[in-house]
Amino acid sequence: MRMFIGSSSTVVKFHEIGATSVSYTFEPTSKVDGPCRSISWSKDGNWLAVVPHLGFAEIITLKGHCKLLQTVQDVIEPSCASFQNLTKRNIAVGTKHGQVLLYDVKSKSIKSRYPRTTCSVTHVGFTAKDTHCYAGCSNGDLLLFNNVAKSLSCTMKVPKSNSLTSVQAHSQRRNFFVGGSNEGIVAVWDTNVNKVKFYNDAHKAPVTSTIFSPINAALVISAGLDRQVCVFDVDDRQRIACIPVENNVTSLDFTEDATHIAMGSQNGKMHVYDSRNLQTPVYSFEAHESAIRHLAFQNSSSDSVNNNSSVGSIVTEEVSRPSRSTEAVAVRKKRTSDIFGVIVEANAPDNDISDSPRSSVLTTQDGGDSFIQALGLDKNDTADSMKFEESIHENKSRDCLSGKRTSLSSFTPNPTRTVHEKLGLYDSKSIKQSTPKILAENFPPVFSPITSEQNRSKSQAVLPTVSGIQTITKEAVQDEVKKAIDDLRSDIKQDIMQSGAQIRRMMLDFHLAMVKEFMKMENYCNSIRNEINPDAAINRDSYLLEENMHLKKKIEELEIRIANFSNKSDVTSDD
Predict the structure, then answer these.
(1) Among 71, 172, 287, 294, which residue's Cβ finds the most Cβ atoms within 10 Å?
(2) Hey, is 513 helix, strand or coil?
(3) Which Pfam families does the record associate with it (predicted)?
(4) How far apart are CA 23 and CA 25, in angstroms?
């Protein structure tokens, strides 16, 4: 298959890898004399999203020949665009007005919108598994959006800088980002802790491009306008190489297997280096008449998704292409050291299976989630694995009902083998020996003893079990169910009785507490009464009796006075 490297200046050109002549040239519809703002390959490498200097974003196809496929007219004044890593249906488009939109290529409409930024968007892209979308802004902010909730997850900035000139997410580690600034600083972020993992005053001029190695998350390369290309080891937090070049390098890109790296210069020349020897390029040619703003190697198509070393073999003029069997696994390169000069071993076979968005569902070579990926659980094939297990159990159940005997080991599902067989890469020697084996004895097959009325005669069939041969009938199942129901009823009744007793105890405690409070209140009232009238508190009954006697005496005295007064009035009247 022909593989291309795309480069953009005022036009987009496609060079076949290993050749210096131009295969295709695409001129944006707007035909404005200005550099293209961004280019992005689709998942299978058949489409390329181009954002011209002015006008609408365009999607071109290289399937068969180069032609315009679609114009994104719903997005006004785009500034950058990027395909998703796992599908070519959706494109993230940033605008000069601070919008970040998700465009559906099939329906030709805007699918969703991310939170609006305060300034223009200069860079846009997706993390390894498309879980997040990132956007670089002209004010130096790097924004990370959740791709499901469409909400802002975090904001990052290059240390000691107020600008962001380049940014890239790692193709395997979804939490690693690298970026550069006009102040010459290169920084690597870890979004799991939302901190800067590493930064270095690498260049004495603005940084033009920063990239990760596809097979080594700790390896970073940067280029700047000081005619320097720097190589960093993020884990050791140091610069391990500095390569002088003849002209300012404006763009960088790795091949999928990291065996070669392309550099686009300010004078329009393109240089392709062997990553094991960065002193002299493998070949150089003049790609454009002006500065190369962007360049990108074409992604492998679905037909050659497992031939990760095919690009490197084309560059080194090894035309022979391995078959999609164990040879495809054997020709992949392996990282043997963190030092860039010997990062790739020329002919070392690698039994690991790489997992980058560009190479479908293969596991990483530098750790990460290799254990989960080896089980086939990190790939979107969980449903396929479940279907595979269900089909195995169904087939074995039919065999058992027909009287066939099968070993227990054949019932053990192997999702890893399923993934490898789909890719045509299954080889018993190529599976990682560190992956624990699942013993069939721990997962015995389960057979349902319940049969339909139409197959009543088969209900007496002998079914295999782990302990031996056992006959299970419908009556036995009914007895077990009835026994279980009776046990459940007795348990519920006992629980109800216990609950009733607890409620009664709680009511008695509540009543006793009320009586205690009433007595406390009565004592309090008596104490207040005693303070008001202490004499009455000595002998309240005698006090009342004395008070009544005193009142009676007063009444008698008043009666005597009234009588005397009436007698005096009578004597006066007689006189």
Answers:
(1) 172
(2) helix
(3) WD40
(4) 7
**CA 119 to each of CA 39, 89, 96, 461: distance values in angstroms, whole numbers, following the listed order:** 21, 27, 7, 74
Q: Where are the alpha helices (DSSP H) in 128-219?
A: none
Domain ranges in the chain are 37-157, 322-437, 475-516, 536-567
Classified by CATH at the fold level, domain 37-157 comes out as Methylamine Dehydrogenase; Chain H (2.130.10)
Q: Is the pTM of this model over 0.70?
A: no
- Nearest alpha carbon to residue 169 among 40, 308, 305, 78: 40
Largest CA distance in the chain: 166
Q: In sequence order, what DSSP letters do the residues of 524-555 get, joined into one string?
A: HHHHHHHHH-HHHHH-HHHHHHHHHHHHHHHH
Please tell me the distance from the alpha carbon of residue 565 to that of residue 546, in angstroms, as a whole number.
Answer: 29
- The H or E element containing residue 247 is none
Task: Match 């009676």 to its residue by tokens.
Answer: 552
Structure-token pair, residue 358:
């560009």
Cα distances (angstroms) measured from residue 98 to each of 91, 133, 355: 16, 14, 33
Angle at 276 between CA 274 and CA 281, to 5 degrees: 30
Structure tokens at 152: 């802002």
- By residue count, the chain amounts to 575
